[in-house]
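Backbone-to-sequence.
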């Protein structure tokens, strides 16, 4: 049976379905960047809210800005916004439920004006974003807005032809201001420290260039809460689609798999109202900084540590890395020796418990989170997840050997594009070509990879770091059987 509104009644005999009347939903939230994570996290919370409370005006309108969003658009259109969330517990238990909180979907490349109008509509109170770490359009090493981007230049010259999130947000805010409507809140849900502040800085930089008066209005009126979001959501595989078909006779073209853990900590700073999510476990706090730093530096960086070494070794998934003691210990060593000292203590958090729990989450054998998902877009991830830890440790004379090893391994991975057994590794990265070109020079210029300043700043000038990096490059390039060097780093 195909998943769509018409079949919901029938399906509700065999699987948990929305109990709210989907026809009366109104979209108070417009979400840009509907992928797996949005659907396992925010859309799930909103679904819980709709199940429980009379909150019909907080449903979601999804927006895809890029051509690459067309598949998701097509599937969700066909399925009336419905999809199955498959929660995989470490002990093998599975929970399945159909989520109904995405009530509408717009594809900007087909109809830019419809997206502007939706954003500008008085009923839109919050615009939330999962546009990925790379989507913010800032230079990773300076943190400044990148005006060189041709799409940005196009929309600055043609404000009525937006292309990026910045063009759309400003076009809509301009319209709201002209109509005398209050602005929406811009809520970033990406893994960037101070994600709200980063979004604010970028929106203002763009708006100032385009329309300084509008920029002052945004500065005064629009709120950009910071948030920490968390739920591991692997790429959907055919096995899951088949499982739903076999188990429930349900044809869902794009279900979402996730772990049972879920967390959302948000600053209570909304300019135009917000849904009452506090009863559903969302934590509203005055300052999210310590939580987001902890999550990004431990979970996301921990993932990258396993992903890059795992890819070279030939582990296909994060849980297979975790079953390999060297990898587990290396990841934990990185967390204990390099991250924990710079995090200090965080009120209400037992750091050892948090890390133990991360080990359990990473080890969940039923999630099968591929190392290729983790390694994808490393050029946007490592400058936010791992390099800041290395820099802080250099500043305070802390341990740097784990993080340095990862950068040397990343260079090897970008250069060779094969694992230790000669099998090709797929590099999915907006900077794949540049990374490869820079890494390729390593054999004759050992520091060549680090000379990409937009990623590494001036790390290539730091002698303590470069000495160690060169030593590790020498080892990995000599023999890519990296496990033994991981053991060296661990002192085993
Ligand atoms: C991962 C994240 O993409 C990555 O590198 O670390 O997607 C991670 O799974 C989520 O942030 C978990 O909340």
């Amino acid at each position: 049976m195909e998943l769509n509104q018409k079949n919901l009644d029938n399906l509700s005999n065999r699987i948990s379905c929305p109990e709210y009347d989907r026809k009366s939903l109104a979209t108070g939230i417009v979400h840009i960047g509907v992928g797996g994570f949005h659907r396992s996290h925010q859309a799930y919370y909103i679904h819980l809210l709709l199940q429980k409370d009379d909150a019909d005006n907080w449903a979601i309108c999804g927006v895809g800005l890029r051509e690459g969003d067309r598949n998701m658009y097509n599937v969700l259109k066909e399925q009336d916004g419905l999809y199955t969330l498959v929660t995989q517990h470490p002990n093998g238990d599975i929970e399945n439920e159909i989520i109904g909180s995405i009530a509408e979907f717009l594809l900007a490349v087909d109809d830019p004006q419809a997206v502007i109008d939706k954003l500008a509509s008085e009923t839109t109170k919050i615009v939330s974003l999962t546009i990925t770490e790379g989507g913010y359009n800032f230079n990773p090493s300076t943190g400044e807005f990148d005006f060189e981007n041709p799409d940005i230049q196009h929309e600055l010259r043609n404000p009525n032809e937006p292309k990026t999130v910045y063009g759309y947000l400003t076009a809509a805010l301009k319209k709201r201001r002209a109509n005398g409507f209050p602005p929406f809140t811009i809520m970033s849900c990406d893994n960037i420290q101070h994600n709200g502040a980063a979004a604010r800085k970028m929106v203002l930089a763009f708006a100032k260039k385009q329309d300084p008066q509008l920029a002052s209005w945004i500065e005064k009126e629009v709120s950009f809460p910071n948030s920490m979001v968390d739920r591991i959501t692997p790429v959907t595989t055919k096995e899951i689609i088949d499982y739903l078909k076999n188990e429930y006779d349900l044809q869902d073209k794009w279900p979402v798999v996730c772990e049972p853990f879920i967390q959302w900590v948000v600053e209570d700073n909304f300019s135009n109202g917000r849904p009452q999510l506090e009863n559903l476990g969302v934590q509203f706090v005055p300052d999210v900084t310590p939580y987001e730093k902890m999550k990004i530096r431990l979970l996301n960086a921990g993932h990258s540590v396993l992903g890059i070494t795992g890819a070279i070794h030939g582990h296909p998934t994060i849980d297979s890395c975790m079953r390999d003691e060297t990898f587990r210990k290396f990841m934990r060593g990185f967390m204990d020796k390099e991250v924990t000292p710079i995090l200090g203590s965080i009120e209400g958090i037992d750091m050892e418990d948090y890390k133990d729990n991360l080990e359990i989450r990473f080890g969940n054998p039923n999630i099968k989170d591929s190392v290729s998902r983790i390694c994808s877009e490393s050029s946007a991830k490592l400058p936010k997840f791992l390099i800041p830890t290395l820099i802080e440790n250099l500043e305070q004379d802390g341990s740097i050997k784990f993080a340095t090893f990862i950068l040397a391994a990343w260079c090897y991975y970008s250069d060779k594009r094969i694992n230790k057994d000669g099998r090709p590794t797929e590099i999915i990265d907006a900077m794949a070509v540049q990374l490869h070109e820079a890494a390729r020079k390593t054999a004759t210029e050992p520091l060549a990879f680090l000379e990409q300043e937009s990623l590494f700043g001036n790390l290539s000038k730091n002698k303590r770091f470069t000495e160690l990096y060169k030593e590790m490059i020498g080892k990995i390039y000599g023999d890519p059987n990296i496990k033994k060097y991981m053991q060296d780093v661990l002192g085993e």
